[in-house]
Amino acid sequence: MYDVEKVRADFPILSREVNGKPLVYLDNGASAQKPQVVIDAVNRAYSEEYANVHRGLHFLSNLATEKYEAVRGKIATFLGAASEDAIILNSGTTEGINMVAYGWAMPRMEAGDEIILSIMEHHANIVPWHFLRERMGVKLVWVDVDANGDLDVEKVLGAITPKTKLIAVTHLSNVLGTPVDVAAICAGAHEKGVPVLVDGSQGAVHMPVNVTEIGCDFYAITGHKLYGPSASGAIYVHPDRMAEMRPFLGGGDMIRDVHRDEITYNDGPMKFEAGTPGIVQTIGLGVALDYLMGLGMGNVAAHERDLRDYARTKLDGLNWLNVQGQSADKAAIFSFTLEGAAHAHDISTVLDKRGVAVRAGHHCAQPLMEHLGVTATCRASFGLYNTKSEIDVLVDALELCHELFA
Ligand code: PLP
């Protein structure tokens, strides 16, 4: 039985007040709060276990290396990867997707080649591909979502042409909460020889993920949304794609030998991890994943589905609120505007006065905003520690906004 009050007690920040009101943290889509075990692990890593990794032969360096390297295996388990050798550690999804763009896509693509994107991608899964468009003449092919915010797999597969070199798609929209059937996209795309990159920044937070079952070529995650430290993360890369990929960043650690006129690289995944990494952040991420696996991602997902259903009923009752994205299977992520002139920033300011933290703006998804015909929305995004009574606080605060701005 999922005991949300027990879970909340693990997160010290949740007991603080904001503007004289109990904090209602509904900005998990941007970044999630950290459980005490993660905070303790980070403190311990700095106060008792810190040294650089992979280099020294002394006690602390060996200890830090052991702790750091153990996380690769935890991520492989969390994502259902067949081997930890498929996991490249990094600072998060943005770095992971850029690495694929520079290291895998750029050497393999030429002018006129096509990359398929859904309209609901985060800028982290758009801008690296724009680099290829600007620099190499690669074409970006966009697939819209329907009126509910769902992405039709057949439309994605129907956009494949002989020029398609990659499909890059989110597992779950950070704005609409829409999940995408990435397994079906991978199956259909692979029949036509097209690899698939999945942006798992949101997907891995809200549902159990198994990259082997999905069958994707790349799956990027970001630690700070997974209740771990910022600047931690990883990307799963299928062994066949890893063999094709060139290193993106050069420096220490990713080499085997360096001479005046020649160089040999480390084996993957370390071939793609140059320089001193986020040692402590990664160790913290490992503890966050232990925490999530301890709760069980199925239980987390069930709790969040409960929150979604409750929030959906409550928000549907506010007939002056426009919620974007009505997918039946959506995650507990609600982006909305209020009828009338109130800007999303004004709404979030009023909510903040009530202790309710939401995000306002374009959510790094401007093509989606254009598609929806809005410039900004407020977004309440729920996490594993949120409660129904917090949804009631949100609704009361929204009613106040309606009174103020109607
Ligand atoms: N993709 C999605 C869907 C996101 O929600 C985010 C973060 O908001 C990112 C990518 C970028 O993640 P990061 O900034 O941690 O690299």
Give the end-to-end Cα distance, rounded to a whole number of Å.
42 Å
CATH-assigned homologous superfamily of the largest domain: Type I PLP-dependent aspartate aminotransferase-like (Major domain)
What amount of the residues lies in strands? 15-25%
Tell me what the CATH architecture of the largest domain is.
3-Layer(aba) Sandwich
- Ligand list: pyridoxal-5'-phosphate
CATH class of the largest domain: Alpha Beta
Helix content: 40-55%
Mass-distribution shape: globular
Cross-sheet strand order for the largest sheet = 4-10-9-8-7-5-6
Task: Spell out the blueprint of helices and strands.
Layout: H1 4-9, E1 17-18, E2 21-22, E3 24-25, H2 36-47, H3 59-79, E4 87-90, H4 93-108, E5 114-118, H5 127-136, E6 139-143, H6 153-158, E7 164-170, H7 182-191, E8 196-199, H8 203-206, H9 211-214, E9 218-222, E10 233-237, H10 239-244, E11 255-258, E12 263-265, H11 279-295, H12 297-316, E13 321-324, E14 333-338, H13 344-353, E15 356-357, E16 359-361, H14 366-372, E17 377-381, H15 388-405
Parallel strand pairs: 3-15, 5-6, 5-7, 7-8, 8-9
Antiparallel strand pairs: 1-2, 4-10, 9-10, 11-12, 13-14, 14-17, 16-17
Helix pairs in contact: 2-11, 3-11, 4-5, 11-12, 12-15
Bound molecules: pyridoxal-5'-phosphate.
Residues 92-94, 122, 124-125, 170, 174, 199, 201-202, 222, 224, 364 line the site of pyridoxal-5'-phosphate (PLP).
Question: In a nutshell, what does this entry contain?
Answer:
By secondary structure, the chain is α/β, with parallel strands linked by helices. Helices cover 41% and strands 17% of the residues. It has helices at residues 4-9, 36-47, 59-79, 93-108, 127-136, 153-158, 182-191, 203-206, 211-214, 239-244, 279-295, 297-316, 344-353, 366-372, 388-405; strands spanning 17-18, 21-22, 24-25, 87-90, 114-118, 139-143, 164-170, 196-199, 218-222, 233-237, 255-258, 263-265, 321-324, 333-338, 356-357, 359-361, 377-381.
